[in-house]
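Q: What structure does this chain adopt?
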Amino acid sequence: MLSNGLLSGANAKDKLKFLHNAGFMEDLYDRMVAFEPQIEKALAEHKPDLIILDHQMVSPSIQRSGIPFVVIFSAGPLLIFDNEKLPPPCSGFATTSDPATWTEFREVLETTFKNKFKSFQERINKEFNYEPAYSLTPGKSAFPQSKFLNIYGYPLELDYQDIVPLPSNYFQIDVFCRVMPQPFTIPKKLNLKPGDKLIYVSMGK
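A:
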């Protein structure tokens, strides 16, 4: 991420372009192709009643099986909401900012990030000769969604349900939290001084 500029001081719009050219989805696609025969074999052997999925693409074998699957989404919910009342994901715009300022960023998001993610789902389906019965990426969504159930973790106080309602097949968990048996103390090596502020960054996992 350092070499491709994603952790640089570039603005959010430029970082979308960096991500578009970073090769991340190509690597993900190659791994999906390599693992698909194993997924098909596992489904045939174990015949699960339910599949829980946390991934950017859905295996054609899972779709073809007809087995219900639940999508777990661990990133920010703006990436799965498809509503013009909300600011575009990855932009940093506040919900109270002027929607007119969102237009340019949303256009870049559509032509780089979203379209590329959607194209790779279509490509993996075609690779294994699967014609989906319905779109896994409805509307402007870039990430796959399940018609059965979709679960995401996000603090309710920061969520967007006061602006847009959740679809009936979505469930919000207030937060994904790891219970620690001992209290957390700030490492001394950070050398914090009175008045300093500490920013907590979670990568979603």
